[in-house]
Amino acid sequence: MQYNINENGYYGDFGGAYIPEMLYPNIEELRQNYLKIMTEPDFITEFNALLKDYVGRPSPLYFAKRLSARYNTKIYLKREDLNHTGAHKINNTIGQILVAKRLGKNRIIAETGAGQHGVATATVCALMNMECIVYMGEVDIVRQAQNVARMKILGAKIVPVLSGSKTLKDATNEAIRDWINHPVDTHYIIGSVVGPHPYPDMVARFQAVISKEIQWQLQEKEGRSNPDYVIACVGGGSNAAGAYYHYLENTDVKLIAVEAAGKGVYSGESAATSILGNEGIIHGSKTLLMQTQDGQIVEPYSISAGLDYPGVGPMHANLFKSGRAEFIAITDDQAMTAGLELCQLEGIIPAIETSHSLAIFNQKKFKPNDVLVINLSGRGDKDLNTFINHFKL
Hints:
- The protein is 42% helix and 18% strand.
- With 393 residues, it is an alpha/beta fold.
């Protein structure tokens, strides 16, 4: 079974490019050039130099001693929270802006939910002296005010989105509209492994630096490059795609994807796509998504803005359907409790997205000798108010 993308832009039954005619030239230009650009020696040199000297890679692989003792298993945290800008998102925005530069683009657009991708995009636009427009739902602007301020300071223009649920999917819709209207000078930096081919593959390749580092770091610490489990939260799923990438075809390594159950999987306020979703098309690709019987998108909900998406990327849809990855849904309350536990056991304040991954220990038991790697995809600075309000601190 193949878990990587095929030559037609599909992961099994999922993927493709279901796009309006107006977008075809943009997507086709990218599809024809992205792999060629990414394999050029000068691109690789520039990308790796920026990851090292600007982002601060490699990010540490940290053995969480007290957390491991509590759950009687070996837990390593891949510390993407220590990257410049505080999350994994920067790995992809650096890569994509270098692609945009080589395609002769000088205007960058992006969508953001939690704001981390918006910050990472604004950061690389400042670095490369490019215009930056970020679309963000009005609801997310309120709950992620700190990241909005960061984007503005970095020189980005924030466009509030007032349609639909005023969250991530609506911001994506507006960004796509912008791109249709500015086909020549604009590159759309999609922040996750979603959207039409080649985006899911391109984003996964840029994030694959995560699993590449895990391999040699685990070899140093455990004398083996393969963990028993790789665990990551999944909204669209770019941090998970990066953590899984070099292990996809190695079925000895079990993959666990953690979704947001919101206020309960069947509460009507959830984002547990693997359970509630079925096959459909969203934002240009065929995948699993939450929809009504007549194909209307069901509004997702999660306490974490980064998991508040009605679908998953096509790679993850295929990992779910094929059984290659196990999907576990975690509620708001479970995630918040697990996040606070990490703060107080390890002195690390995680993003609420990542906190969902940390909450699986009450649902799944591991053996004492199992080696687990949890991708700590972002830091919790942006979520402090949510933590304070939730626990009435």
